[in-house]
Amino acid sequence: VPYKFHFDIINQICDNKHKPKIIFCEKPISDSVRKAEEMILLCKTNNIKFYVNNRRLTPIYQHLRKVIKNEFDDEIITVNTWCSSGLHAIGIHMIELLRMVIGEIKWVFAIQENEQVESLPFSANFEPDDPRVQAMIGFNNGIIGNFFNSALTSFTYFEIEILCRNGKIRVSDNGKKFEYWKPSLPKGSTLSYKLNEPKTIKIASSSTLFEEIAISIAEAGEKDIYHPLSAQHGIKSYRVLDAMVRSANMGKMVDLK
């Protein structure tokens, strides 16, 4: 259901005498931090395990973390991301992946995209009042990156590029294409200090993402609040989204501490 109804529906579920053991909620968790906090408390009070959809379990992004560590020694300089539609529709997925791949976010400075867009040819769940921003993001580990979210294109896109000390990585084509570049051996000329042709990684999976999600939730422990799909991750990512919107409205940096 649309995310603006999540709060009311979870209230109804928790009032019902036939309560579920698990709620798996679409992203984002809600349309405000306050409502999200109340939803988490309601589920905890009623002994309901609460999960929120994200892309953490997608095989290509699981592999991304391994490549950063094994091929580039975790030496990240910066990260740049691009995604279409609005913050609530698609941007929240990118925020979640940034938290997973790079680390927790400390501050944001955002500028809002103001051109009015009524509908998108590729998105049935886009809403004209869903904010879109371009933001600079500071992470707890000192890395600074860029986040670009726009509804001005006639095509859908979702891309992340990571610049490392010894090369770069790019996941493009809406999460379907994985490439990384490493330096070639220099030949004396300054211009020879360049990257080789990209290496393309094929990620095979025997199941769909939602099959992976169902298995992961079914096997989760009773107290596994930091499960990849936990509501704790859902609200942390929404706090970043909320900070981006507030930063754009105020015209200044917002600290998430």
Descriptive overview:
The protein has 257 residues and is of the alpha+beta class. It is 32% helix and 24% strand. It contains 6 helices and 11 strands. Helix 2 (33-45) links the parallel strand 1 (22-25) and strand 2. Helix 1 packs parallel to helix 2 (33-45) and helix 2 (33-45) runs antiparallel to helix 6 (231-250). The longest helix is centred in the last third of the chain and has 20 residues, at 231-250. The model has no long low-confidence stretch (mean pLDDT 93).
Protein topology:
Blueprint: H1 6-15, E1 22-25, H2 33-45, E2 49-52, H3 59-72, E3 76-84, H4 87-101, E4 105-112, E5 133-139, E6 144-150, E7 158-164, E8 167-172, E9 177-181, E10 199-201, H5 209-219, H6 231-250, E11 254-255
Parallel strand pairs: 1-2, 3-6
Antiparallel strand pairs: 3-7, 4-5, 4-11, 5-6, 7-8, 8-9, 9-10
Helix pairs in contact: 1-2, 2-6, 4-6
Task: Describe the structure concisely for a colleague.
The protein has 257 residues and is of the alpha+beta class. The protein has six helices and eleven strands.
Mean pLDDT across residues: 93
How do the strands of the widest beta sheet line up side by side?
A: 10-9-8-7-3-6-5-4-11
Q: H/E series, N to C?
A: HEHEHEHEEEEEEEHHE
Structural class: alpha+beta
Q: How far apart are the termini?
A: 31 Å
Helix content: 25-40%
Strand percentage, roughly?
Answer: 15-25%
Figure out the total of helices: 6
The best one-word shape is globular
Give the uncertain stretches in residue-range form. none
